[in-house]
Amino acid sequence: MAAYENITIEKGMYKPGGYGLTEALEKLDPSENYIGTPLEGLDAFERQLKRFDIRVSGPGSDRIEKFFQRAQSTALFPEYVSRAVHQGMTQADVIDDIVASKTQIEGMDYRSVASVPTDSDLEIRQTNENVTFPETNVVLQENLIHLRKRGRMLCASYEALRFQRLDLFTVMLKQIGAHISTQLLNDAITIITNGDGNGNAATTHTVATNGTLAYGDLVDLWSYISPYKLNTIIAPTTQIMKMLNMTEMKDSYAGHNFHATGKMITPLGAKLIHAPAMNSAKVIGLDKNYALELVQSGDVMTEYDKLIDRQLSRATISAIVGFTKIFTGASTILTVTTS
Questions:
Q1: Is the sign of the CA dihedral 321, 226, 246, 334 positive or negative?
Q2: What is the largest CA-CA distance in the chain?
Q3: What is d(CA 140, CA 261) in angstroms, rounded to the nearest whole number?
Q4: Higher local confidence (pLDDT), 93 or 26
Q5: Contacts for 21 with CB less than 8 Å, ≥ 6 apart
Q6: Shortest CA distance to 45 belongs to which of 16, 18, 72?
Q7: Contacts of 278 (CB under 8 A, 6+ apart)
Q8: Angle between the 21-28 and 77-91 helix axes, to the nearest 10 degrees?
Q9: pLDDT tens-digit profile of 270-309?
Q10: Is residue 312 within 8 Å of 157, Cβ to Cβ?
Q11: 3-state secondary structure of 154
C-alpha cells in the first residue's frame, strides 16, 4: 500500500493563521518521493483526493456529499474550499500585476524597510580612485504596517448543496476569490494614494483638461515616474473608457492586442488595471517592479470546524493581507479636473 493511503487525516492538522492541510500532508507524504511514478505531478492533497476517489473538476465531477461519506475525507473539504477560492484570486489577475514582492508573516503587524534615493543617488557616476562609491541607505520604517482581514461569508445549508456537482461549486468559490481580490486592489490603491503611514503618499499631478484625458497626459505620466518605468496604470471605469477611445489605442499595437486578447495595454506599453471603485477623476501610474510589497499572514482561511461539521451556513472565507510601499517614487497620480 502506498504511503499516502496510510495517513490519518483529522481537523487538528489545520493550523491557526491560515496554513492549510496541504502543508501538513506534505511533511508526512513528500511529493518528491513520487518522482518517476504515475503520481508524479500531484501534491499531497491531490493524492488524498485520489485515495478517496473524489473528482472535483470536469463533467464527471462528484457531488459535494462525496467528501462527507467518510470521516477522513470530510477533513479534506475545507482545504478544497480554500484552494478553489485561491484559484479565483489568482485568475482575477490583478494583485500579481501591481506588487513587486510578497512576504508571509505570522501575526497582524509588520515593519518593513525602505530606501528613499535622491536624484543624485539614481545617477550612475564615474568613481575615481580613492573616492568612495555613492551610498544607498536602507532603513527600517518608523511605523508598523497593519494588516486587514478581507473575505466573504459562505451562506448555504449542507442539505441545499449536498447533491450539487463539485465542478459547479468550484466556480462559485472562485467568484468569492475574485471578490476578495477586488477588495485587496482597493486596499492597494489606498496605500499608493495615501501612503502606509510612513509619510510616503504618492505625488499628485493635476491635469486641467475639462475632464477629458488625452494621450499627452499619459506621456506626461510616463515622464513623471522616471527614472522608474511606467509599466502599469490603474484607473476607474470612466478613465479606462477614455483611454480605449483614444486614436492611439485604436491604431497601435495596443489596440490590436486588446481586440485580439481582451488584455488592455496602452501604446506606452503599460498594462491597464480596471478599478471600478476608484475615484473617477484619478489615474495611477506605477512601476510594478518597485512600488508595492504585499504582506500576508497565512493563506486563504476557512472556518474549517464549521465546514467539517457541515455547518456551511455563515462560514467565513478570508485572507489577512496588507500593503507597504517600497520606493515612493515608483508610483504617481494624475488628477483629471473639469476646469
A1: positive
A2: 79
A3: 42
A4: 26
A5: 9, 13, 14, 45, 75, 76, 78, 79
A6: 72
A7: 186, 189, 234, 235, 236, 284
A8: 110
A9: 899 999 999 889 999 999 999 999 999 888 888 888 888 8
A10: yes
A11: strand
- Residues in CB range of 230: below 8 A, 6 or more apart: 221, 222, 268, 269, 270, 285, 286, 287
* Percent of the chain scoring above 90 in pLDDT: 51
Contact (Cβ atoms closer than 8 angstroms) between residue 97 and residue 291: no
Cβ atoms of 291 and 100 closer than 8 Å = yes
Give the Cα separation of 308 and 304 in Å (integer). 6
By DSSP bridging, strand 271-274 and strand 232-235 are parallel
Task: Report how far apart, in Å, the C-alpha atoms of 179 and of each of 44, 80, 98, 196, 292 are.
Answer: 28, 18, 17, 23, 21
3-class secondary-structure state, position 308: helix
Q: Which three cell numbers stand for residue 64?
A: 459535494
Q: Are 301 and 317 within 8 A, CB to CB?
A: yes
What type of residue is 165?
R
Q: What is the mean pLDDT of the chain?
A: 86
Place of cell 496541504: 22
